[in-house]
Amino acid sequence: MSALPLPYLVNLAGLVLGLAFGAAVQRSNFCTMGAISDMVLMGDGNRARAWALAIATAMLGSQLLHLTGLIDLNTSIYATTNLGWLGAAIGGLLFGFGMVLAGGCGSRTLVRLGAGNLKSLLVVLMIGIAGYATLRGLFGPARLWLEGWSVIDLKSRGFASQTLPDLLAAFGADAGLLRWILALAIPAALLLWVFKDARFRRQPALIVAAIVIGLTVTGGWAATGILGADEFEPAPLVSMTFVAPIGNALQYLMTFTGATLDFGISTVGGVILGAFLMAKADRSFRVESFANAQDVVAHLVGGTLMGIGGVTALGCTVGQGLTGIGTLALGSFVALGGIVIGGVLGVRYLEEGSLPGAVRALFARD
After folding, report:
1. What would the pLDDT profile of 269-309 be if each residue is shown by its tens digit?
2. CB atoms < 10 A from the CB of 337, how many?
3. Contact 80, 237 (CB under 8 A)
4. Which of 123, 246, 268, 347 could share a disulfide with 128, CB 3.0–4.6 Å?
């Protein structure tokens, strides 16, 4: 019998996974926003390939856990039969645009905070406040209204979930076989694209970090779905995501009663601590502050958009772009597409100086 109660073990696992995630991101400069910016402005695909490698790793690990019966990914929030396609698209756009203004996505913001960046403290606060307001507060009714008329009830149409295998099974194929095919074919295609580039193959720090980050997603499913399995009080099946957990973490710190310490809150603390320890170890820790008032406004607006968008889309670049994608859920692919488009639009906005100019640049042909 375990010496620690089950919830404590799950939370400890979240802390350890967060530590690994934060240290890997800090050491390698892994960043989704940076990957988009590199591609748009310089044509440099190294960090985009690292992101793809993390997706491939997360998907392989997640699907193997599911296919071997150790967890059931269809019980996660990503695979439900309620397909919130519009919320995923709009939320993704808002999050992607906001992360550019704020200088990084939710996970990268936590890492920068751990490494001494005080600008990220404001972003974290705004993500938490805006995210919580969208989940349960001021913006909640608007989110529920959007869901009410745009969500597609797949169960009433005979689908078991919104995952690609279950959707494609409507054409007569076996869902189990389709899952095996997709679980192997998609990561294989990603890995082929990732490692065909000789420059990326000479980036060991990025390669190792991407694999570690992908494995933390698998570890999260294992922690909550296997370690947290309890006949009477099972832990919710979740893995790495940061928008809602940041809001819960802020509430927990302020009240200790308004929120219960859980896997998500533990990962938030672990990411900050992991980044701090790595920054101290490689001597990259430094206190940074705002350059001017315009910098403050950009981070304020960016954090707000990330909080609203992340909750509306049911996740961030990690929550949907790694964890959700790993479940093969259609909504996660829609959200990821929205995040990428929003990120490209944000980069063009900073480059052009106006939103109309950014839109024109987005559709312009070189």
Report:
1. 999 999 999 999 999 999 999 989 999 999 999 999 999 99
2. 16
3. no
4. 246
In angstroms, rounded to a whole number, what is the distance separating the alpha carbons of residues 71 and 38?
37
Q: What is the pLDDT of residue 1?
A: 41
Rounded alpha-carbon distances, angstroms, from residue 223 to 31, 123, 239: 25, 28, 8
Do 153 and 81 touch, CB atoms closer than 8 A?
A: yes
Name residues whose C-beta falls within 8 Å of residue 69's C-beta, 6 or more positions apart in sequence.
none
Nearest-angstrom CA–CA distance, 30 and 217: 15
Which amino acid is located at 90 in the chain? I
Six-digit token string for 134? 């969208």
45-55: b or e for each residue (b if 16 or more CB lie within 10 Å)?
bbbbbbbbbbb
DSSP code, position 156: G
- The structural domains of the chain, with segments of one domain joined by +, span 12-363
118-136 helix and 140-150 helix, angle to the nearest 10 degrees: 60
- Give me the mean pLDDT over the 123-144 stretch: 91
Distance of CA 19 to the CA centre of its chain: 16
Q: Which of 43-47, 258-262, 274-278 has the highest mean pLDDT?
A: 274-278
Residue 203 and residue 190: Cα distance in Å, rounded? 17
> Which residues lie closer than 8 Å to 49 by C-beta, 6 or more apart?
193, 194, 197, 200, 206
DSSP three-state, residue 117: strand
